[in-house]
Predict the structure.
Amino acid sequence: MSQTTDKLSRKDWFLASVAGIASYLDAALLVSAGIALAIWSSHFGINPWWTGVISTSLTLSVAVGALLGGRLSDKFGRVRVFNIDILLVAIGSFLIAFSNNMGMLLIGLIIAGLASGADLPTSLAVITERVSPEHHGKVITVTEMFWIFGILLSQALGFVTSTMGMTGTRVLFIWIAVIALLNWGIRVFSQKFRQIEHELYEQNAHKNIDNQATQRVSVKMIFSSKRYLVPLIAVTGFYLFWNIPANTWGSFVNYFLVTINGRSQSYSTALGFFANVAAFAVLFFIYMKFADTKHRYTMMHTGIFLCVLSFVVSGIFGGTSWIIFSIAYFIYSSCNNLHGESIYKIWTQSFYSPDVRASVTGVSIAIVRIFTAICSVFTPVIMNYSPDLLMWLLVASLLICWAFAGFTIKLVKKYNIPDPGIKGLSGTEKAAEIVQK
């Protein structure tokens, strides 16, 4: 069996699991806020514009956190920033849980969002720096599994607490705070975890450097050199137009079903839960198996096509039909990770050397989340004005995402980036010397 199809070692799994909590918390915060949105709106008596502001404050905080955290981790140490971030997530989540006014709620959302955002590029860099490049696809898939698990568990808790009002929202965010505290304890106090971090770094760091076949890159070079700037634009564009639909339903699916379609909080939460169970199964049994093989981009194109189709059907037959929307949402959720954040994370780690990966990823995530935050302000208004219009806007977003995906693959070929999905550029082969363009 080739190395690219080998299973991850126990050490790889342990490292990816501890670091993957960053993705879990990111998803849990966004989804829990989405679940709580209708309840907060009613409890605090706010209109659709302020509903958008609440969601936007969290999304925008994640963006700023990613921008600052990525750079700080490259400058002062990825593990150090890695450990501080998670503690601040716990503090922010406790503030959200016990907020009794809009001001306290927004402060908690901002703190938790900043810390969660900072942890995303940092944890990803920590993982890919310590795992063999032939397994980057698999280990990144593990972080995506935690992201889906964050959605699933939040939706399960949301369903259980759906009749509890504000008490239910407190349970959601207390749980997030407890998970963050436990993860912080492992990161800081576990000798076993620190030993595994060190052993994997000693074993694989040189492979990741050699696999880049490039010189040391500064942050300044990323924005001054076409070789580094163009891939950043391409990958960020891909992630942005994938993330707009993902954030729309991650944050507003409950609001859409309850406010627009007249469904109950229990129904909307249950639909999201079972749709994401299917998504987790696809990620684990399909994407995990083929992420580091020649089928990487076959999965990507299939996923985008099915997601576009789901919104086209919903747009044609009416976004106000809760039955049609439920089916479309189920298909979209099941297929969304075949082409989305997983391949984005692989690309951000592949185009750049380890010394700037966190910074580059942080910049990219920040740009995407800022634009997504802007969209979130208008999303509830568009939903109330015309659900059909929303569906067609999401179709357009995914088609643009698809175009950026094709452009990024051309860049992978152009710069000879090791990639098992492209013939002749397998990660098991020595990458050709990159020619500065």
About this structure: The first helix runs from residue 10 to 44. The two ends are 37 Å apart (CA to CA). Residues 1-5, 428-437 have pLDDT under 50 and may be disordered.
